[in-house]
Amino acid sequence: MRLRQTYCSESELKEIATFSKWIMEIGDGNNCSVFGEANISIPTYLMVSRHGDPISDIIKATYPNLGDNHDNKDYLASRAILAPHHEMVNKLNEYMLSQITREQVTYLSSDFFENEKGKPKSQDPKISAEVLNSLQIPGFPDHEIKLKIGVPVILLRNVDQSSGLCNGT
């Protein structure tokens, strides 16, 4: 977390310090078990009031006026939602994308096997295309990705540095 303004009141500085300590304890594994799932006590002041759909509520609380600011890098960089699982990240991203009124394009992964030389080979009858498409492998993109012009994408790895498709590392 980086402080972006220097004119904080004493109470704001105390709140920032308390939050920083709490989030560091979580990151260090002091507030939960290191392995598996665990319950974490979240301070009430950090919680979003639940009035209806929790996904809609947290996005509206974290990203007010998203439709008007989706291409504002400072607006996006100053906010974040932490999610415990990839499935929740997908739900949040899907909802956020639906709030932006731009044409959507869907890209699908390849659903065939390659031989050792990189050439397509006949489909293995034991593994259907549906099974391949349903796989969610850590570090690999899902079978389907939806994009809209002007909506930022974060690359987790360098794809093609000469074309500018890199993550900054």
Automatic annotation (TrEMBL):
* InterPro entries reported in the protein's UniProt record: P-loop_NTPase, Pif1-like_2B_dom
Q: What Pfam families does the database record attribute to this sequence?
A: Pif1_2B_dom
Q: Which domain of life is it from?
A: Eukaryota
Which segments constitute the DNA helicase Pif1-like 2B domain?
A: 130-169
Coiled coil stretches, renumbered: none
The protein in question is named DNA helicase Pif1-like 2B domain-containing protein
**Species whose genome carries this gene:** Linum trigynum
